[in-house]
Amino acid sequence: MKSLYGIAIGSLLLCVGAHAQQAAAEKFAIAIHGGAGTIEKSSMTPEKEAAYRAKLEEALNAGYRILEQGGASLDAVVAAVNVMEDSPLFNAGKGAVYTYDGTHELDASIMDGRNRQAGAVAGVKRVANPINLARMVMEDSPFVMLAGAGAESFAKSRGVPMVDNKTFDTEERREQLERAKKKLDEENQQDKDYRAAVDALPAPYRMGTVGAVALDKHGNLAAATSTGGMTAKRYGRIGDAPIIGAGTFADNTSCAVSATGHGEYFIRYNVAADICTRVAYQGKSVAAAADEVINQVLRPIGGTGGVIVLDAKGNIALTFNTKGMYRGSRAAGQKPEVAIFGH
Ligand code: ASP
């Protein structure tokens, strides 16, 4: 009798456990960013604001649909990033900023939270969607990061079509380069703080690195980041976006992060990994960990930017220490939420 009782209670508990697991597994979410910086309502026309909002929502929904249908978080982050890479509004793919020499050099990286597999490309000039190439590096090569001409040879060997570097030309970004160069010349600091020079330009011309983090129904996290880097960069400068642990990080046991901002700081402070380490080792929430790193570590030393963070329970943090960050999130069963300016 007693053992029958035990079996009954045991099965009941199993049943409840399975339900809880199912509920947890049904939890899915996606968050995106389209760059952080001096983004103010006063410096943006209503038309431009509407265009940004619409594109952010389109990117969010592209990823959300995949998650909703039970697809993988890796597919969701790539789909979201592709929408923004294909838009001239963002500093990634089509709308990439110019280098000092008047060309475009693109960086991207992706990470799989299941197993810490990662792929990255840096300084590519002829690939329309660098995030897809980063994924190929992860899934179809023994390497993590490929740069420049070598990355393009790899792309060709995998059948990726090459595009002319001029594909990424846009009038707005060209004007931004001219202004940045003028500012650098005026201050005679070509080799010095070009971010400060670029920051002196009117918003929103200089922003727009893109990124996405997602949690799928199987409980897997992924993160992706893609960028044209910083206006007037030179000498093959590479920022944080293609660096695993700096601009991108994902591990199912802690969190997924995509960053945007002044890359040199994000590299030196290992920002994306630091946030997830605080979650893993200190039991911090993603909101607390992101706030500590962005506002308490980076802000005092002048490191401007922001992050989107997501954990395996579906908790989301969209944290930045700048005036604004193009951003959005959508959790299972919820409507998409997009925002641009600070709180
Ligand atoms: N993090 C990018 C870089 O340093 C730029 C940005 O996000 O605005 O290349």
Characterization of this structure:
- By secondary structure, this protein is α+β, with helices and mostly antiparallel strands.
- The protein has one domain (28-341): Glutamine Phosphoribosylpyrophosphate, subunit 1, domain 1 (4-Layer Sandwich), CATH 3.60.20.
- 40% of the residues lie in helices and 21% in strands.
- It has helices at 2-26, 46-68, 73-85, 130-140, 148-157, 171-186, 194-199, 263-268, 271-282, 286-301; strands spanning 29-37, 106-112, 117-124, 145-147, 210-215, 221-227, 248-250, 256-261, 305-310, 316-320, 324-331, 337-341.
- The longest helix has 25 residues, at 2-26.
- It is globular.
- 53% of the residues are buried.
- Mean pLDDT is 90; it is low at 12-23.
- The structure holds aspartic acid (ASP).
- Aspartic acid binds at residues 35, 209, 227, 229-230, 239-241, 260-261, 263.
